[in-house]
Specification:
This protein is mainly beta. It has one domain. About 10% of the residues lie in helices and about 30% in strands. The radius of gyration is 16 Å and the shape is globular.
């Protein structure tokens, strides 16, 4: 069985809700859809070619809606570079018949497109539940 960790995200990562983290290599779904969060540890001292943080979170987003010949992409979610695009993957990164990033393609192309000094075996992916609470713990219902 692979490695899975559940954390109360406000204490562990700054996000509201519960996130279930799974090593990318153990992630059972061959498709990675937009909205998934990918967590990457930094593997060398900061020299300007990667992020200055020890750990960087990325969100998978739909680059194909804004760029021709594109697949999905990764946007930085954490640290001083939050909100910046890290990479836009080519159309060849799609899982066949979907608008999802192929897990196998990502693992095979990790050092080329995402992080040359890291390995996909060091990467975590989050499965998150819907959020129904505010940061102060208030449960929120949509007004009728």
């Amino acid at each position: 069985m692979g490695t899975t960790v559940s954390v109360d995200a406000p204490q562990a990562s700054g996000y509201a809700g519960i996130m279930n983290w799974i090593k990318l290599e153990d992630f059972a779904d061959p498709n990675i859809f937009s909205g998934r969060i990918i967590r990457v540890p930094t593997m060398k001292c900061y020299t300007g070619d990667w992020y200055p943080d020890a750990v960087v979170d990325f969100m998978v987003f739909e680059a194909f809606t804004i760029c021709d010949n594109a697949g999905l992409g990764l946007m930085v979610l954490s640290g001083p570079k939050a909100g910046k695009m890290n990479v836009i993957f080519p159309e060849s990164s799609f899982s066949p018949g979907t608008y999802a990033l192929s897990k196998s393609w990502l693992m095979e192309n990790w050092t080329k497109y995402v992080y040359a000094d890291g390995a996909p075996t060091q990467v975590w992916i989050a499965e998150s539940d819907s959020v129904d609470a505010l940061p102060d713990g208030t449960l929120w219902k949509i007004p009728e």
